[in-house]
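Page 42, continued from yesterday. The earlier attempt failed because a stray header line got pasted into the input along with the sequence. Redoing it now with the clean sequence only.
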Amino acid sequence: MSAVVFAEQPVRPVPPNMLAGWERYGLQWTGADGSVWDLRNWRTGVFVTTEGLLGLDDPNFEIQAQESPAVHGRTRENYRIAARPVEIPLYVYNDDTSREWQQLYRAIRNSFHPLKPGTLQLTSPLGVRTIELYLDGNGDFSYTRDPIFEGHSRYRIRCTAEFPLWRGETISRRFSGTVPILLFNPDGFLHIGPRNVTSSAAIDNTGEEPAWTRITVNATGAEPLDASITIDGGELGLPTIPAGSQLVVDTDPTVGSAELDAVDVDADVDPWDPRPVPPGTAVPLDLSLDGDGEVIVELTPLHWRGL
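This time it went through. Structure tokens are written below.
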């Protein structure tokens, strides 16, 4: 086999302070089989060659517009984001034996699947974003050299993100009713409980698309818990939660569920008027909590780009 040498072009020495504050982005692949690969570390034998990496920037927008023969041009009214094509240029090498190269090759290639998604994760100074990918195949690929003998080869893995948006880090707000009421008397504060809690806050959406909330309510006391929540004017009337139980409500229209201890209770949420959080804004979040417990409101921002 031929030896593979990775070398950098000689550069003039740079004062250390000129490089301070600059860093590379990280790229990790979690395969459909659960295997995890650091695609920015060439020492693993599998790494991305950044030239030709497709899918980190804007998606493809399908513009919906109105046209009239009496008016020049057209008027844009809305858009739809199509499934996102993604191409990952991979280099696979091993300097030890043909057998070990082939084992490495099979392991990384088998981590992609046409029906089971894997997750591509990009880490940057501003946080972490992820996107799920399905394998499309590479049927027109042809070898020009024997990779088993050479111990290295380049590949372009073609995938599709059926859900084309990058998911950001989850934003959450937590409310607790475990602290009792404080009543003032001449001797100081008298602590009694449980209490009725009414709280107001805001939850913000840092993404470029509307995002829906996921609400978790835990009844942590010895008595049942009653709660209601209003997000941007849309009220969710939650059912009574028995002591020690958990209610999870997902307002995403593609899910639209309410489960009490993993049992479907959709019909018991009344009223049901969830509202998405618009992109780039913060909306009011109001909570009424009667009893000991906690409420966690979560939102996952959706982004056009990975960077």
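Notes: The chain has two helices and 23 strands.
Reminder to self: strip header lines before submitting.
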